[in-house]
Amino acid sequence: MTQHLGNVFRYQLQPEGYENLEDAGSTVPTGTYHIGTVAGAEVGVWEAEPGLIGGVTDEEVFVVLEGRAEVTFDDTRETIQIGPGDVVRLNRGQRNTWRTIERLRKVSIWSASDS
């Protein structure tokens, strides 16, 4: 068994899409790759093309590898600017919007919500 989980720039991401909040009926292309589970937490890569999307967070820590975005949290109205090298913590249940400015890729470690 190897301890090397892979290279986050070489994973073939599975296409997804989020509702584009600026253009009803269209989606913002995103992609994801689930690397695995470590000590009960999920590890993965996520990427988003430019656009405005919204969602609700799980408990998560991520590192931006490339690209730029603005993330606004509905509960606090705080907006953060993120880019390469930034480490961000998200709290479970926070509603937010992401304005991706340049195609963004991040590697995340998260605890999925209990359904």
Automatic annotation (TrEMBL):
Looking up InterPro entries in the UniProt record yields: RmlC-like_jellyroll, RmlC_Cupin_sf, UGlyAH_Cupin_dom
User: Sorted alphabetically, which SUPFAM superfamilies does this protein's record hold?
Assistant: RmlC-like cupins
Q: Which Gene3D superfamilies match?
A: Jelly Rolls (2.60.120.10)
* All residue ranges annotated as the (S)-ureidoglycine aminohydrolase cupin domain in the record: 42-107
Q: Provide the protein name.
A: (S)-ureidoglycine aminohydrolase cupin domain-containing protein
